[in-house]
Specification:
The chain contains twelve helices and twelve strands. The strands form three sheets. A seven-stranded mixed sheet has the order 2-8-7-6-5-3-4, with helices on both faces. Helix 1 packs parallel to helix 11 and helix 10 packs parallel to helix 12. The termini are far apart.
């Protein structure tokens, strides 16, 4: 018998995937399913990106690369961030890898010894706490509330800091709430003296004002980003880490052992994305915003009003506790009775229980159909 370590029992399921799998099983039976559970752009990868990858393949870009990533891509990443955020990054501060999830795991392995703590918002992205646990660390929750706009309170963060605190992990625009953190909040968090790990994968997806990078406020930070969301490249599995210069030898050594290098030809696609595809992707953002406004208005009309502003990413987080406090039970009931797949809020921590996450990374036609079905479901349920 293979003996598994006990700590793996603490690794929770990713219930967005559980709902997706249940939805696919219903589809296999011939049911019509509308998917609002996943944060995956429905737009195609811009053609200029795909063409760059094809050309790279034709040139034979199918081999190992520099462990940090090809120099031209790292230079492009620096130029992109320096221009957008007013920074002075250099290529030696960039690591490219096979998606930001791999990089998050690497960051936790680099920062934590057994028993060390990482502060997390609650609710927050479902997998963060598991990345901490995989590095034998302890996730420590800092509650955020809809009544306070789902903004992290720096005073509440400060109250959770102990001698074992090694990092604060933030995400803005946020998953699952779609909240963009206010600059003054980022400034205060940066002043707490705790290293900040900032997941900026939803940067570029902000409505009504630009999002801010934590690197505008402090150098005591590690930033994760990638191409999945803004550039509509989820399946390309390419992300990058921005880090203080003095960490480069350790970062490179760890990555050499874990991944050797990022895949070759997708890195040339990423160069094309940053240099040529931004206008196309900004067009995608305009359509996301149109959907966002529709979803907010429509949810309010059917009995799921929001009391905060989801101004980024492509999610809204609706309080459904007055309908059913068990969010997994309610999401499965909605799926089975209406064919609409949404993510249960408890997936994102105890503070999310009773909420439902709706993704508007789907066509307006499909979203309208989903909310029509949900409206009928809620009306029937209220009658009895």
């Amino acid at each position: 018998m293979i003996r598994l370590p006990a700590y793996l029992d603490e690794i929770t399921s990713f219930y967005a995937v559980e709902v997706f799998q249940a939805a696919k099983a219903l589809e296999a039976q011939g049911r019509s399913i509308v998917h609002l559970e996943f944060g995956e752009p429905d737009f195609p990868t811009p053609a200029v990106v795909t063409e760059a990858a094809i050309e790279a393949l034709r040139r034979g870009a199918t081999r190992y690369t520099h462990s940090l990533g090809i120099p031209e891509l790292r230079q492009t990443i620096c130029e992109y961030h320096n221009a957008k955020y007013g920074l002075a990054l250099e290529p030696e501060q960039v690591l490219v890898s096979a998606g930001s999830s791999v990089l998050m795991a690497l960051v936790m392995l680099m920062l934590l010894e057994p028993g060390d703590e990482v502060l997390l918002a609650d609710p927050t992205y479902a997998c963060y706490a598991n990345f901490v646990r995989l590095a034998h660390g302890v996730p420590v929750s800092v509650p955020i509330r809809e009544s306070e706009g789902f903004q992290l309170d720096p005073a509440a963060v400060k109250a959770k800091i102990t001698p074992r605190t090694r990092a604060l992990l933030i995400c803005s625009p946020a998953n699952p709430t779609g909240v963009v953190m206010r600059p003054e909040v980022l400034q205060e968090l940066a002043g707490l003296g705790v290293p900040i790990v900032s997941d900026e994968i939803y940067h570029g997806l902000a409505y009504g004002g630009r999002e801010r990078s934590i690197l505008e406020f402090t150098d005591n930070a590690l930033v994760l980003n990638g191409y999945s969301k803004f550039f509509a490249m989820t399946g390309w599995r390419l992300g990058y880490l921005l880090f203080p210069r003095e960490l480069m030898p350790t970062v490179m050594r760890l990555h050499q052992n874990v991944m050797i290098s990022a895949p070759d030809f997708p890195q040339y696609a990423a160069i094309a994305a940053m240099r040529e595809a931004v206008p196309t992707c900004e067009g995608y953002v305009k359509e996301y915003d149109r959907r966002r406004l529709y979803v907010i208005e429509r949810l309010g009309k059917i009995g799921l009003p929001l009391h905060y502003e989801p101004a980024g990413a492509f999610y809204v987080f609706a309080d459904a506790r007055h309908i059913e406090p068990n969010s997994l039970k309610l999401s499965m009931e909605i799926l089975n009775e209406t064919g609409v797949a949404v993510t249960p809020g408890f997936d994102f921590g105890p503070g999310g229980e009773g909420y439902l996450r709706f993704s508007y990374a789907n066509s307006l036609e499909n979203i309208t159909e989903a909310l029509d079905r949900l409206e009928g479901f809620l009306a029937r349920r209220s009658r009895g």
